[in-house]
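Q: Could you fold this chain for me?
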Amino acid sequence: MKLSRSAIALLALTSTAFATITVPSATARPVMGNQVAAFEQHQKVGVQAITVVDHDSVFPGSQFKVKVLFAQDPDPRNFANVTKGVYPKAAGVGMDKALWDAIDHDSATVKQYATAAEVKANFTEKELAQLPAPIRSAIDNDSWQLKDRNRQDLSKVAFEDYFGWKYAVVADPNYTSDDDGLGTDGLIALEFTFQVGNDLNAQDGLHVGADFYAPTSGGIIRGDGGNWKNQLAPVTVKVRKEADVEMLTRAGDYKVGDKVTLTARVTPSQYQGNVTFNVGGQIINATINNQTATAEYTMTEETVNVRAQITGNDEFSGAISDYVRLAPKATEVPTPSSAPKPSPDAPAPEPSPAPAPSPAPSNPQTSEPETSKPQTSAPETSKPSTPPPAADEPESSSVKDYWWAIVLGILGLLGIAGGHAWINGLIPGLPRP
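A: Sure. Below is the predicted structure, expressed as structure tokens.
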């Protein structure tokens, strides 16, 4: 199958666009929010803790993650009550009652990081820089591995109400009171995922923080000080309603120079503010009016991805839309089949018969161009000609057919005469019928 040059150009442009542009899937679209974290050194038992919440806000009906990390400080001068390594009986997070009540306890999950690569992927350099030097060096060199003595039982997240303080924890299945446990060469790093119900009321000042149950140290951190919020690395989060933004502009091909209208729809209707369109790195802002924001983009020769974004405020979360792809239309190359037909008034092409000569001047002998001289013979195209014979028929086939007819006629006459002679007994030696 042959393709025209315009079709080939269009295929090449389309192939290049798909080879260089990757559109994120809808399921990967993030809910906007800033990660929040806290670090704390607990003076009583010498445990360092880091708490990280993946968003600065939690939303009714959505999920949020809490990551906690525990390390033993190797310097005894930094804690008052420990003569050997701290062994955790349980590790997890504590939280305010409003958040604890809103979490679906049955769907909560937890995983434990077992390698240095996992720890570095989930905690920032700034956070890890506060860990004891031996552990920090082991993580930097990718030599740290989870010790068996520090493995937690991840089969179930236990939600405990301890004298009014709320905790989600996992227990150590290998716990013994005389073990070194966490020690100065180990880490416990956990990631909890919680599903929040729709009944979580919007409010500020909810707390989430690391919880470490260490009976071998002579003190239980969760009860020390009368309130878990005064313990390990609490983080304050807000509760917001979730907003969303959707691109309504149609993905497709547009002519270079065309004005493309960018349109986004925002929900819920109570959200007010601006929509930011990111057009291949170019930022265009538009005001929301009746849940819709529009802006104008002039199409260039480059294929671009466009997405809309709204920022969070005191009541609503921020959000980012899916990508919409805008591509320039391919320039069509004329082909013989699409070339314009000549005008009836245009001069005839050279292969056509010459036009009629113009009136001869007074002296045709000296001034008449050679092309205007009268033709001495008719053009070849005007001569009568016989159509060429068919490819499967010799040129003299009509003559041969004529002689065959003559031969067959003679043989027929001879047959008639012989029959008549036989009937009348005119053939000697041959009896009559």
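A (continued): The longest strand covers residues 63-72.
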